[in-house]
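Page 47, continued from p. 46.
Same chain as before, 75 aa.
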Amino acid sequence: MTKIKRTREQLLKRQAEIEKQLNRVSVDERMELDNDLEDQAIQTEHQEVSTTMANNLLRELNEIEDELLDLDEED
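Result:
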């Protein structure tokens, strides 16, 4: 699979977007569980989705940081 080279500007823009999304996920995860058991089940499912999304975003953020380091080494 060929990797598309992105510019520093594109990488920094995506990095900022990811950080903003991670902050939203973090806020969502701090919400207290509802007293109703059915609502708790739904909230738990949402938290699992949020956790998966956060993990994927962190993985992409690491890739972006690696690409930025590569660009720095080329300069």
